[in-house]
């Protein structure tokens, strides 16, 4: 974790936030309630491996607040991103390859690991993110059926776009 | 400060998480109409629950005072009850004046007051034993509360013992499980009276002696105090007859009846000391009787 990490992450922050607000939000609005695409959690997923947990959580929170400002749902995305930031550490520890991380891998991207590893990380994180987001959005578990449906639909669509973005840009740091 | 820093490094993720989630929650509730409404509703329910719980707790904490007040009132009611019994009987009697006088006294030339023949002092048992040959209790009432030796101690379920030694604040009570215990008792509905003694090591049973063999005694008959002594008021529950009564080994003309105590001696916890107004008078009379014999 050093100052060289700032540039790429800042670009990802701005780029993903803009993509989310300008493109995906409009798609959701015009197509329907079950058609949610979340690309911005990719910013949290791709934070440097060496980033301390509190920093990752805080950056996630910042990202969430930014998205919230444009969605007009202050706090909902922030809450989900905060949770994703915390869980990212657990998952990265759980998915540690045999022999541990070498220090050569700067970010958890398919450039350093394989696609399967990246999909298990981003898939689980994205699913939890969606579930937390729709739970907080409903703010009650009375509509657990609706929450589950939205989570599954949102997760599938989001993963499609996450894979597309990572494939196109293939980030290295 | 260093420790605090260490704590943050070790649990920083969780601390940051909880702080930021709290902020998010605050923002959600404050800025989103739907979530805010749900929160307000749930908070109302929760607050109602908490307030109810708190008031229940407060009631529970005041339970001890409540119990104390109730026991005092209970003692007063018992006193009134007995007093009523003593006064109504003389009313039907022609010797009303004579009996009335027995429960009234003149404390000065001008003022005459009436006191019940029996009064109750609520007491709490502070020590107890049941496993010895002679068992003793201690209660938290003494001469300051008007307790004197030879007063009976009863509980609401049965009898406890007899006061022996009295200090200012405390008294020792000879438990019914004591070889010297001898309590006058009657069989309910039969009228026959005898003496209750404890002559074995069974802490739940006493033996009722001196009931003549021609009385028909059956399993389950109720045994009450007779009221023939100043220690216990008449008609207080003692226990029930258990099993078919056997003849007394010392005197074949009488029974030795096994009585199951209604008040389990291992569970003595609180009771009432019975104060009889004329205890001293009656005792001194009895003493004269004994001297003559």
Secondary-structure map with pairings?
The complex is a heterodimer of chains A (173) and B (293).
Chain A: H1 6-31, H2 41-45, H3 53-71, H4 76-94, H5 115-138, H6 144-169
Chain B: H1 2-31, H2 33-61, H3 63-92, H4 96-102, E1 104-106, E2 112-114, E3 118-127, E4 136-139, E5 152-154, E6 159-166, E7 171-175, E8 183-187, E9 193-197, E10 205-212, E11 222-225, E12 237-241, E13 246-247, E14 254-261, E15 270-276, H5 279-292
Antiparallel strand pairs in B: 1-2, 3-4, 3-15, 4-7, 5-6, 5-15, 6-7, 8-9, 8-11, 9-10, 10-14, 11-12, 12-14, 13-14
Number of strands of chain B: 15
Largest sheet of chain A: none
Q: How many helices of chain B does DSSP assign? A: 5
Could you please say which CATH topology of the domain at 183-266 in chain B applies here? Thrombin, subunit H
Helix residue percentage of chain B = 25-40%
Q: What global shape of chain A is seen?
A: globular
Helical content of chain A stands at: 55-70%
Shape of chain B from CA axes?
elongated
Count of distinct structural domains of chain A = 1
Notes on the structure:
- The complex is a heterodimer of chains A (173) and B (293).
- Chain A is mainly alpha-helical.
- Chain A has one domain (3-169).
- Helix content of chain A is 69%, strand content 0%.
- Chain A has 6 helices and no strands.
- In chain A, helix 1 (6-31) packs parallel to helix 3, helix 4 runs antiparallel to helix 5 and helix 5 (115-138) runs antiparallel to helix 6.
- The longest helix of chain A is centred in the first third of the chain and has 26 residues, at 6-31.
- Chain A is globular.
- The N and C termini of chain A lie close together (10 Å).
- The relative contact order of chain A is 0.15.
- Among the domains of chain B are: 2-61, no CATH class; 76-116, no CATH class; 183-266, Rod shape-determining protein MreC, domain 2 (Thrombin, subunit H, Beta Barrel), CATH 2.40.10.
- In chain B, helix 1 (2-31) packs across helix 2 (33-61) and helix 3 (63-92) runs antiparallel to helix 4 (96-102).
- Chain B has 5 helices and 15 strands.
- Helix content of chain B is 38%, strand content 27%.
- With 293 residues, chain B is of the alpha+beta class.
- In chain B, the strands form 3 sheets. A 6-stranded antiparallel barrel of chain B has the order 3-4-7-6-5-15.
- The chains are: A mainly alpha (173), B alpha+beta (293).
- The A-B interface holds A 52-54, 57-58, 61, 64, 68, 73-76, 78-79, 82-83, 85-86, 89, 136-137, 139-140 and B 8, 12-17, 20-21, 23-32, 34-35, 38-39.
